[in-house]
């Protein structure tokens, strides 16, 4: 499945990675070769094989519905780039 | 003191030959003196280390010392450590001080160990050479021209250089075993789910696993006992008792059935590496083991499957680094999209971006079935290969890496770099444990023997590795560091 | 041309768990910003989710309530997109294997007829935080307290054909989740939110028209209004030769219109994949059976029982079973007074009137079900008459006494049924009203019936309202007729 320049730009946009044209060209080359390597998978017949999401066939354990966390806003916001009145600030979101 | 194993240091502390403070001070001084060319540490936490050492000494004076009390070690900078910079080797987290402790960190502290600091690593654990760190490459103590392997390259180099007797690493596709092999130390990747991932910054959640890196299998056994176990905060950690990994180390290997995967001795394997590995296997035969060839027929699909699954998970795991709540944020963002795009473009390095792009692309509409689903199916086939093999043999053995440590800058092409992990990657896909044991040298650089067991066979792997280390002294060889030889 | 409207609803219900779906942080509403956002909710590096048992149980209870299939295995997936109120850059949801399979909800329309609306599935997911757009120097503030609150998203089939049906469906869901106690159903606080898919097609056409999705329509009334506007817009558009575009629209209740959300219109690709931090949820049959055995009586069953066992009219049964709070109140009154019909009249009459006047919910009623029950009991056993009962109710409402009996006693409202005492009062009134007695006597016999009202009023007044009106009537008639 050949990769095109537009695919790289699209992935970069979906992943919110700023990429200029020349960087995109550079990645196109790398990613193309990685996908070529990955494409070996297409040659394998997996008819009837169930996908494996986790290496162990374990099932989800459930947590009791208890409030165990206390307010740590001050600690958590110490590593935040921009806060005011306890809120994280971002450039205005247009609804 | 820097030449001793953890087990020896523990005995010295217990006998009162030296205090934890003395030991800690001596190693801190050694790091100060010798780490500059190696670049194995990102952060040295001298103050906290000395405080922890004093607490350990006080505990010992009160008769409250456990087997690991007062023993120094280092943590890969992927483990969140409360109040300490936790960078994951990335500019993205250069200013991030973790507000909480990873479970592994908590457990090691509870066992009384003394962390000397945070070791260098490939950014977000993506790499096989430790050349992808924002903090610069780590160099191999055996040869400064060589890479230490990755992604736990800082941990491996620090242990090999005698800066610290043990360090914690993480292994998603070989990131403990391959650097352990390149640096001539012992490194264990436990079964997926054996050690909690809570607080370990995620690369690929269904593959990541933490484990010990040290000078001997016995040391790894002590450390694994301290960090293993069920964690209520990690849904994927396994509720299963933790055996005494030290207890069984001395069991004889008579009758041990060793399988040699045909596919691990094929094209691309360095002659020197093969010779050292074959020699090691002869040693096992002399210890009473029997050897036979087995096949893992889907081996060559492991790297393609991994490079779908790991980047896909990573692309999602790394979305939280958006410049809003923590981490790097670009200057004066024009709008929200600019904030995201520039913060992430500036904060992530090239290899991380490459994997995010690959993962994003393969998960996209129209590609999901062909890539991700197919890779998951192949993952099942790969696991089945191992399960079938373990029906016939107790353990599998082979090289940890096709070559000894390569030179810095030697692998410019990402695909050829990825192919280096051919012997380690399938193990993560299958979730089984694996250990690297030093097994000689090729061209002056260490060679690692990889031993694989079935799920939860850590005790057996440690026993098998320990017996080899009772019969050989490869694990005791030390590089001659520049300043020491001068 | 005749047009048919086709509507499907996606209802997001916040589940009434104490802690979040994947963390131990509180879900309480109204806390200071970000004080209930723990490390997991913030998506700090290295944190991991652990699933809340109560969220699972509540989802299953809902499934049982709509007679849905409960699959043995359900799986969480990640829905990937960037938004500041979504801390991890993905929402943990269930795309491919939801916890609740196909089921159905019965709705009752205004004419009393019923209709079954099929539910496609319901899945668990985590709520996002909130963006606050007040001016922070041109910035938006993010509060992540709500992030990680468990949501059950209930997706209907496009089975509704009018705004009224859609509103009735939403009410039925509201009634069900509050009956089950799995949500407080508070739409004003966002505990229940609704996305509406609307399309139109020429009557008789098989294929669906192109639909528009109206986001966040958060009251029963708005659902009707938004659909009404949207249907009209689409019909006009088509009749003018235009075409409906598949898009997301926002309902503006002030302008009473829906508007295209063009700013968010870029093509999304959510890249769903199974969440590697969570394992498949496996529900064994015993667990599901246990939940089924412990389900409360649900609205439909309750309505049927009110009709068949209590003899209420279909209308009364519908009103009184519409919410769990209403039904519980009514049954409380009925149990104390022992008369379902009287209890129904009082709850729907005096009580509902008072609640409506003061804008109170039934749970906030100052008169408890036990108090009202005792009052109704005194009406039933004729201790007081209807007029006095209203006085007692007002006294209870205003807290002038703890019980109906105490108020009756204190105010001397006990009904006088002693005919001797009543006769004394009647004789007094007749003596005091010679003119009216004369008029009565002179009137044609068939007009006298109306004229007796004056005398009844005077006697009741003399008794301060406590005389038994039927007795007064009867005795007055006898005495006046004897004078003719």
TrEMBL record, chain A:
It is an enzyme of class 6 (ligase). It holds the Pfam family GatC. Its EC number is 6.3.5.-. GO terms for biological process: glutaminyl-tRNAGln biosynthesis via transamidation; regulation of translational fidelity; translation. Keywords: ATP-binding, Ligase, Nucleotide-binding, Protein biosynthesis, Transferase. It comes from the Bacteria. Heterotrimer of A, B and C subunits. Belongs to the GatC family. Allows the formation of correctly charged Asn-tRNA(Asn) or Gln-tRNA(Gln) through the transamidation of misacylated Asp-tRNA(Asn) or Glu-tRNA(Gln) in organisms which lack either or both of asparaginyl-tRNA or glutaminyl-tRNA synthetases. The reaction takes place in the presence of glutamine and ATP through an activated phospho-Asp-tRNA(Asn) or phospho-Glu-tRNA(Gln). HAMAP family: GatC (MF_00122). This is Aspartyl/glutamyl-tRNA(Asn/Gln) amidotransferase subunit C. It comes from Halomonas stenophila.
From TrEMBL, chain B:
GO terms for biological process: translation. Signal peptide: none annotated. One of its GO terms (cellular component) is glutamyl-tRNA(Gln) amidotransferase complex. SUPFAM superfamilies: Amidase signature (AS) enzymes (SSF75304). It is an enzyme of class 6 (ligase). It comes from the Bacteria. PANTHER family: GLUTAMYL-TRNA(GLN) AMIDOTRANSFERASE SUBUNIT A (PTHR11895:SF151), TRANSAMIDASE (PTHR11895). HAMAP family: GatA (MF_00120). This is Glutamyl-tRNA(Gln) amidotransferase subunit A. It comes from Halomonas stenophila. The lineage of its organism: Bacteria, Pseudomonadati, Pseudomonadota, Gammaproteobacteria, Oceanospirillales. The gene is gatA.
From TrEMBL, chain C:
Keywords: ATP-binding, Ligase, Nucleotide-binding, Protein biosynthesis, Transferase. Residues 328-480 form the Asn/Gln amidotransferase domain. One of its GO terms (biological process) is glutaminyl-tRNAGln biosynthesis via transamidation. One of its GO terms (molecular function) is glutaminyl-tRNA synthase (glutamine-hydrolyzing) activity. Allows the formation of correctly charged Asn-tRNA(Asn) or Gln-tRNA(Gln) through the transamidation of misacylated Asp-tRNA(Asn) or Glu-tRNA(Gln) in organisms which lack either or both of asparaginyl-tRNA or glutaminyl-tRNA synthetases. The reaction takes place in the presence of glutamine and ATP through an activated phospho-Asp-tRNA(Asn) or phospho-Glu-tRNA(Gln). NCBIfam families: gatB, PRK05477.1-2, PRK05477.1-4, PRK05477.1-5. Heterotrimer of A, B and C subunits. This is Aspartyl/glutamyl-tRNA(Asn/Gln) amidotransferase subunit B.
